[in-house]
User: Which sequence fits this backbone?
């Protein structure tokens, strides 16, 4: 759900030594104590607490899952570890936006000699302590402080004058939108100071900085040590457990890689043998005694082959997934079900190239919201969606162009990390002295999974939005990929400066309005006027934040907020300015909202952290509009973890929607919850005592998003389909029983799953739990779908394309629109289940689409491929799927023969006998096409007759077709027939006989004469020696408006691209002695 966009920004800086202060790191008089493992006193002089004011930066952030939770004091700070000429090593603190260094410290030569060069850098999640791991087994810690009141940089006005110090910085930033402002303040000052140094004689294999302690894996002895940042009274600062005492760990060697995820409270150990373990740390002494150890783990990644050995891992707490990178470059995705070893393999994802091309895996990291996995390889990088749909990749780069443009970010990655909210990816290339910041576009579904966002595609960038406008275009333009149908909208600079990055965005159902929410406040945009509305009072804007989502009800924006006034649902009108006093309605909530979603025409569902689903009705009158709470469902004991709920919707029976009391909706509604990657269905039922209970069924696994068609805008329904809310009990509406107006769509990362009628799904779920649910329709896709355009019958998505040119100095990514027709898969599903009525009804509704015949052609193509690969048994009593499909296609006589011919020309010759085994003889089909006047289609059947050896060289079918084509003046078809005959006989005898038999005027009467079959003037070809009967001696030019230049590239009969070599007209002269006729 992330795609790389544009060209990256490159940052490289060799900081002059004279601009930094040198830190001796306690080497003057405390080095001995440090070597002995004691904590040294602060020995830095007054020059060691430093900051600089250089204009560019390197950045690299140690982000032990702190980004995902937003718990770092300033998420725009990054720390890096740089070696200058292999001699002087420095530690720098910089900001991603703006890209400036705010603090730097250089280790002294004595420090390098005593402790060794830097190996890795650790950052405490709180952001106040940094730890350098050196090659000689030392851990050097530094304290970091942020000073917002001091400014290492000044703003220079355009006229070159330095602004006055008395000017208020915040107001200046708001008015001028200066790039040095990010998150509502000036670029702050930072300072680094030496804290302590520790020596671990056992040798350091791996270290990890946590909130309360430092976890270190040592070599000799092999053990795991936990060193608290601050010593507690009457307790040791260090806790150690030997590897040999860990019975659950098969390898008695220290782990080579350790990853910790704080939301899940889970470690991942990678051992030297390539195994992976899910590990938890005992919280207290009693639990430690119970589990007999400091750590307890379970092995979940087993290696039976050397190429399957694990090398890296990453944890996705949002979806409860652990990604394990293997030696062969593949990524194994595991689902964490519980903490007792319930970790199952989902599947493996493979890069698009071989192991020799990718090289070894260097880094794995998930985006802050968990929707994208970035994998850095030795020779490139690639991204996948959460469940494995490929995204952007650098392996499609041209190595020659990359060398010319020096785009080293395409050649390999040493390390990488996401910036706040996943707007950019920062990569350290293999050269080691340059950072590349590549922007990513994110789907609005990730931040706000509502039906409106699925119906209308929105891509969010760091500075604006890309809105797809193809749904407003004619049908053929919607599926066109050679034109741009994107509208670009810039986020207001004032709002982005104060509240960036943007967390969520939502489109109105009619496509007229867009609402966004950043760190605090909100703003909305009108596509008609092209204007934004933001809060005029910054205090009011900063008084609340959107939590739980937003939606539109006509021109009314409904938002779930948290702020100084508590948890609320607020209603704002697009027609008025944004302010607290102009809020149309404020509804108090007992707990913060997890998810807010519209349902139906006027219902709002709000799921809160206290595990309660509230049902509101939008009540509007001439003067006022507000929310009326009409019911709620307590889900205690059903949903165990409310924060893990990503989306909520429900299905209310039709009779209840039309004549029922809205307060009773909660008693009859079936509720869908998207929890992690599971789509869960809760159906109400009554106990023996008359109490309401809910039966739970898992509808789908590995769900990235889903959509109920009944919640999508009515404008997206096919013209012949009535909305399910408007069902009537009359005979005229019987066809609407098989439409997609009440369908359920689910994307699982590999394909789109569809239940055409959610009512049938609910009926199957209400049966015995032991029985399986109704099987869905599977629509295979090779791109990420973003929108379901029901009215147009297509799935719309995008993919990232890398552009490189020899004459360009840089490479860049762009988004390319992709579309897929979903009708063929649905029809195939209906026909496979012998549901001809549903297939016929659905086809009738989509028949007006200009590409409907192509959909039927794809249907036949898919069924034919399956029949060739897996032929049905001759003893099967029921008709085969191919036979059923051909019978179904005969219901469309205007397209039937064209579909057969078009499908035949796009398949291999070996498939033809399978296809025509269920059809009338090709000769009869030819006669039918000729009788209907479809000369082009009849010509296509000639190819079939010839390939199946059912036609002679001068068969009467060719003569009849050629004569009819000449009578109608279809000279293009005549040209193709001539080429077809020439392909059968290069000497031209067959063509001469055919021209004589059709009684063509002016046929040459002797060998050696020629007939011009090309275009006007000298551009035509000469076909010599057309021998006719002796009684005819006149020669004429046959003018046919075709070019002779394409002589060797046609296959004849409009069947270009069929790949049948007998029909290819060879190049060169057809005859040895051509002569032009005067």
Assistant:
């Amino acid at each position: 759900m992330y795609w790389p966009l544009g060209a990256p920004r490159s940052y490289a800086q060799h900081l002059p030594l004279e601009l930094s202060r040198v830190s001796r790191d306690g080497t003057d008089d405390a080095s001995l104590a440090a070597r002995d493992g004691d904590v040294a006193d602060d020995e830095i002089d007054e020059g060691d607490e430093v900051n600089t004011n250089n204009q560019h930066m390197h950045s690299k952030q140690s982000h032990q899952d702190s980004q995902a939770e937003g718990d770092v004091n300033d998420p725009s700070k990054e720390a890096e570890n740089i070696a200058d000429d292999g001699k002087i090593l420095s530690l720098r603190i910089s900001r991603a936006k703006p890209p400036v260094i705010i603090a730097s410290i250089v280790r002294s030569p004595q420090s390098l000699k005593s402790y060794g060069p830097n190996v890795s850098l650790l950052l405490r999640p709180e952001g106040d302590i940094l730890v350098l791991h050196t090659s000689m087994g030392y851990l050097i810690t530094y304290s970091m402080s942020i000073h917002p009141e001091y400014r290492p940089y000044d703003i220079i006005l355009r006229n070159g004058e330095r602004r006055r110090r008395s000017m208020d910085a915040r107001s200046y930033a708001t008015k001028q939108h200066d790039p040095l402002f990010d998150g509502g303040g000036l670029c702050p000052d930072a300072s680094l100071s030496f804290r302590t140094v520790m020596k671990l004689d056992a040798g350091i294999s791996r270290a990890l900085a946590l909130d309360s302690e430092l976890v270190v894996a040592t070599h000799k002895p092999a053990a795991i040590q936990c060193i608290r940042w601050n010593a507690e009274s009457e307790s040791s600062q260090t806790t150690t457990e030997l590897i040999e005492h860990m019975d659950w760990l098969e390898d008695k060697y220290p782990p080579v890689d350790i990853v910790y995820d704080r939301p899940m409270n889970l470690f991942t150990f990678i051992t030297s043998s390539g195994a992976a373990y899910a590990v938890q740390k005992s919280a207290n002494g009693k639990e430690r005694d119970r589990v007999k150890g400091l750590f307890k783990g379970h092995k979940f990644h087993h290696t039976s082959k050397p190429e399957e050995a694990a090398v890296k891992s990453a944890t996705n707490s949002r979806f409860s997934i652990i990604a394990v990178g293997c030696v062969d470059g593949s990524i194994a995705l595991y689902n964490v079900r519980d903490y007792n070893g319930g970790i199952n393999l989902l599947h493996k994802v493979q890069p698009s190239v071989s192991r020799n091309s990718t090289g070894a895996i260097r880094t794995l990291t998930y985006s802050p919201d968990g929707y994208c996995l970035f994998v850095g390889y030795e020779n490139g990088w690639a991204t996948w969606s959460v469940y494995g749909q490929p995204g952007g990749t650098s392996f499609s780069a041209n190595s020659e162009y990359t060398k010319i443009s020096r785009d080293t970010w395409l050649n390999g990655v040493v390390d990488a990390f996401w910036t706040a909210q996943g707007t950019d990816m920062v990569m350290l290339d293999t050269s080691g002295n340059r950072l590349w910041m590549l922007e990513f576009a994110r789907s609005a579904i990730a931040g706000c999974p509502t039906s409106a966002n699925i119906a209308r595609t929105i891509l969010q960038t760091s500075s604006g939005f890309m809105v797809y406008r193809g749904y407003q275009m004619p049908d053929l333009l919607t599926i066109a990929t050679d034109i741009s149908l994107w509208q670009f909208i810039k986020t207001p600079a004032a709002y982005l400066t104060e509240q960036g990055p943007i967390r969520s965005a939502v489109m109105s159902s009619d496509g007229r309005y867009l609402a966004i929410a950043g760190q605090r406040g909100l703003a909305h945009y009108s596509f008609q006027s092209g204007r934004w509305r933001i809060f005029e009072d910054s205090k009011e804007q900063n008084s609340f934040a959107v939590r739980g989502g937003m939606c539109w009800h006509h021109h009314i924006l409904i938002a779930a907020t948290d702020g100084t006034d508590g948890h609320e649902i607020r209603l704002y009108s697009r027609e008025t300015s944004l302010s607290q006093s102009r809020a149309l309605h404020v509804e108090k909530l007992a707990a913060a909202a997890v998810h807010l979603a519209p349902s139906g025409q006027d219902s709002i569902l709000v799921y809160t952290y206290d595990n309660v689903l509230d049902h509101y009705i939008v009540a509007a009158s001439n003067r006022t509009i507000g929310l009326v709470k009409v019911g709620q469902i307590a889900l205690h004991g059903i949903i165990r973890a409310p924060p893990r709920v990503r989306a909520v919707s429900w299905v209310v029976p039709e009779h209840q929607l039309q004549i029922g009391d809205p307060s009773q909706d909660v008693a009859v509604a079936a509720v869908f919850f998207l929890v992690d990657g599971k789509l869960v269905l809760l159906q109400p039922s009554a106990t023996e005592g008359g109490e309401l209970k809910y039966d739970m069924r898992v509808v789908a696994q590995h769900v990235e998003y889903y959509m109920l068609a009944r919640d999508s805008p009515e404008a997206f329904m096919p013209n012949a389909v009535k909305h399910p809310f408007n069902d009537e009990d009359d005979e005229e509406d019987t066809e609407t029983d098989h439409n997609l107006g009440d369908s359920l769509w689910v994307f699982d990362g590999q394909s789109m799953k569809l239940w055409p009628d959610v009512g049938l799904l609910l009926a199957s779920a209400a049966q015995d739990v032991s029985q399986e649910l109704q099987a869905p329709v599977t629509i295979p896709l090779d791109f990420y779908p973003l929108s379901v355009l029901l009215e147009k019958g297509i799935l719309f998505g995008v993919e990232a394309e890398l552009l490189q040119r020899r004459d360009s100095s840089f490479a860049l990514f762009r988004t390319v629109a992709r579309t897929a027709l979903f009708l063929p898969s649905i029809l195939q599903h209906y026909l496979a289940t012998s549901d001809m009525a549903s297939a016929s009804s659905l086809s009738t509704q989509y028949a007006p689409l200009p590409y409907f015949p192509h959909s039927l052609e794809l249907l036949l193509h898919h069924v034919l491929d399956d029949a060739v690969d897996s032929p049905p048994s001759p003893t099967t009593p029921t008709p085969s799927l191919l036979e059923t499909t051909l019978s179904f296609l005969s219901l469309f006589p205007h397209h039937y023969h064209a579909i057969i011919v078009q499908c035949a020309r796009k398949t291999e010759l070996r498939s033809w006998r399978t296809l025509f085994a269920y059809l009338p003889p090709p000769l009869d089909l030819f006669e039918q096409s000729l009788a209907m006047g479809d000369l082009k289609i009849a010509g296509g059947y000639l190819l079939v007759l010839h390939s199946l050896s059912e036609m002679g060289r001068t068969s009467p079918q060719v003569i009849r077709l050629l004569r009819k084509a000449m009578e109608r003046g279809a000279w293009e078809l005549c040209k193709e027939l001539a080429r077809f005959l020439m392909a059968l006989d290069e000497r031209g005898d067959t063509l001469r006989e055919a021209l004589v038999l059709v009684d063509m005027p002016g046929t040459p009467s002797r060998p050696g004469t020629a007939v011009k079959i090309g275009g006007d003037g000298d551009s035509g070809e000469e076909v010599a020696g057309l021998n006719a009967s002796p009684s005819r001696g006149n020669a004429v030019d046959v003018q046919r408006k075709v070019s002779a230049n394409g002589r060797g590239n046609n296959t004849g009969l409009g069947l270009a691209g069929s790949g049948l070599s007998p029909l290819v007209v060879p190049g060169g002269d057809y005859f040895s002695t051509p002569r032009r006729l005067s």
The two ends are 68 Å apart (CA to CA). The first helix runs from residue 31 to 35.
